[in-house]
Amino acid sequence: MQHFYLCDLAYFSCLISNTLLTQSLLTNHTETFAFLKLHHVFTSYFIANFYPILVRYLAKKNIVQDPKTHTVSFLQPKGAIFEPSLSVGTENDTFTVLNLAVAAAPHLYPSAFIQLILNVFIKRSKSSMFQKRTLKELLWGYTDPFLNLIPYSTPTTVGMFYPHHNTSDGVYKVFSGKNDASKVAIIDSYKGKKNLPYWPSYCGMINGTDGASFPPFIEKTRVLRFFASEICRSFYAVFGAEVNLKGIPVYRFILPSMTFASPLQNPENRCFCTEKIISKNCTLYGVLDISKCKEGKPVYISLPHFLHASPEIAKTIEGLNPNQEEHSTYLDVEPITGFTLRFAQRLQINLLVKPARIIEALKNLKQNYIVPVLWLNETGTISDEKAEMFRKQVTEKINLLGLVEMILLSVGVVMFIAFMISYCTCRSKKVN
User: Fold this and answer.
1) Separation CA 156–CA 173 (nearest Å)
2) Global pTM value
3) What pLDDT digit, counting tens, does each position of 286-309 carry?
4) Which residue pairs form cystines in this protein (predicted)?
5) Is 197 left (phi over 0), alpha (psi -120 to 50) or beta?
6) What residue ranges do the domains of the chain occupy?
7) Residue 295, Cβ density class (10 Å: 0-12 exposed, 13-18 middle, ≥19 buried)
């Protein structure tokens, strides 16, 4: 009888585990496939004390399954809708911000002769180091008066996310996991490539998933790897804490402070340091130069308020107040299915501003500055409706499995004790 109950325990455990595993695959009629198709996030863009909220829908489109290679391909739409009810101010409010075209000019055109010509157009357009723009213009693009005067074939529209608004990112090709569950949602290729051309060696590898989900049965010791196309590199997150999200137990994985560390602090980051002057021979930390993947524009990425950055970077900027809780990135992942049920991605977009003796708008600068333009807080949380559905289809099954295991184990222990008592009693009688 003892053997019978242990078999029942294994049967129930395998039955529920296999059901959950099946629903974790990226194939038709599974929970993961449905999860892949519909997801949205809220994005807050912080400029001084002005923070409008935009809703960005992450409903992946053009989803195509390939049963031969066990992969799924899709596009990720880019764009957002302004949400006035959640925002402070409107997207048409104006504020003073760095002049993107003027600030980037010395970096894009180091030649003194070209800078002399550019200075003429900058003065004629009455442009300076700073300008007044609306948030809508800053994010999605505006016609720059300085660039508009240049009589050559030069793009005249400037914006932090121009020209990517209302476009699509990809194609992403990910594994469905049908032949290997440990590969569920792992990216096989991005835009037909397995590596990025911007970084040498392993830094250019496209690792992990897109962050929306991970292979099932996640343990706390696992390192979660994910790819962020807008930053042109892969990242990783480590276990931070157990969290309860709307009645669902999840693991919180956090982006470690060593992510943007210098090669001196983290030797694995050496191949992310591609220049020696601004980085002071790769000793600065807390910022990442992504100009190579931004068409040469001097864009630097950091955590908000230069969290975990070199003091010499932050000391030239007033009003910074880095906070670990408010400015860190995390993923709340349900460990059985691997679904990311809540996340917060916090990043700051900065521009390198260099002194330029010939360009009058920049000639008074004494050193190089990495100047914050804005920082974004992109968050997404499972809805109450989907959370209730998840609890019924996943959490309750897991709880049932735990209950069945406890009952069967208890019965097995009781029967084993009864058997041992009976055995000892019979043996004692035989001896007597």
Assistant:
1) 34
2) 0.83
3) 999 999 999 899 999 999 999 999
4) 203-271, 232-293, 273-282
5) alpha
6) 38-382
7) exposed
